[in-house]
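# step 3/5: fold
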Amino acid sequence: MTSEIAKLPGKAIVTVSIPAFNRTDVLAEALRSLQSQTFTDFEVLISDNASTTDLRATINAFNDRRFHHYKHSESLGMLGNWRFSLTEPKTKYVAWLHDDDIWEPTHLEEAISHLEQNPEAGLYSCACDYFNNSGVVSTFAVETLADIKRPVVLDSNHSVCHWLNKQCSQCSSAVFRRTTLDQVFWGPKGLNYRCDYLLLAQAAIKGQWIYNPSVLVKYRIGDIKKHWQEPKKDLTRGVQGTYVIRYIAATSIESGNFDRTTLLNLAEGWSAFAKESFVMACGSLDSPAYLRATARMLVNEFPQTVSSGSVTRTMRLSAKLGLWYVFIADIANRLRSRWWPGGAQLPEPKK
């Protein structure tokens, strides 16, 4: 049973953290998928972000002592609720489940088994199906690991190369080693786009990353385009997205886990968009010199890609005129979007 404010016992090996707001119907589906898990040594924290609907009644209907409801008196915002739900637990592992997603019965069993076998791993994740009310729409998997048929353990040098290509995990497939969450940066003030990418990538490159190509999660999707119809919002999203990529790359350098040769080799399999995103993010004026040099090398390594019709005009001009054009374009975009990651120093390389 649950209470309005419940303390987690912390006796299980893993806490399932569910940031929730208002949606009682889909929350019930998520909780039913938890009760179907073959691995049962878990407790659940439903972090209720000041809902106006009665989530407690929905949770109590399950009559499951593992389910603990914590209702905030006022909204923490989406990122604040994520942070509370993931850092409040004190168990060895923390599994992330959004209130509208669903786990397959063996998801936790697979995750905990692989994390127990690999004590250096900070993050486990798996492939997932995108679905809506009509059924499964598509499958989300790591494109640069498409040939992998069984779970693989990747060291930091290789992990960062995949994560700089694109986000490699959806939130509801992530299971963290709890100590890893104490080491991550949650982003500068005003960052509200790609916060999940920033968090998950850091967890993956802090130690080892376990990737399971099996589809063990169902990730509900909807029409998010309506939230980004205004040009200024699209521009802000682009500026914040490049910041996240820049921070991930800088973090890997700072920790000594960035290998330029490995990145350039794996970048051959990146899309034109991924190559452009890396150059625009890491070729900026406030990137560490090593990153700017890597961006320049990527342009030289793939001249046809970064000057093709598949990239933006800014990228084509940068490939032709030099990275100084990236500096100008980046500063102009920050000024036009009115978002600047002030006070958030990028990590410096180790000497």
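# step 4/5: annotate
Residues 227-337 form one domain.
# step 5/5: archive (pending)
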